[in-house]
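Entry 14. Structure prediction run on the chain below.
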Amino acid sequence: MVVSLVASYAVWHVHLIQRVAPSAHLRQPATPAIVYGTGLAHLNGDSHEMTCTAMAQNSAGQYCVTWTLLAPGQRAVQAAPVPPGANCAAVEADQRAGRWVCTTSP
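Output returned:
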């Protein structure tokens, strides 16, 4: 009976567990090295590096609505401005284009 249990364990281990184990070694997708936004910032003296990646506008002016924390190896780069004459109530930094784009108009 002991030999049967050991043999059963060996079969399960070889055929099932080893087929599942390689998936544990899948690599996480790499994060982009550049994050477009307002540029490098530290919010209220916080040591975490971040950049603003979405802004809105009210009667007082523009304000950040989305802060993105930078992962190790990432760096903040200023996004190119929206095209001249664009009237936007809210903008977002397009990470592929590297520029601010309107998300809502007034």
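Residues 1-23 have pLDDT under 50 and may be disordered.
Filed with the rest of this week's runs.
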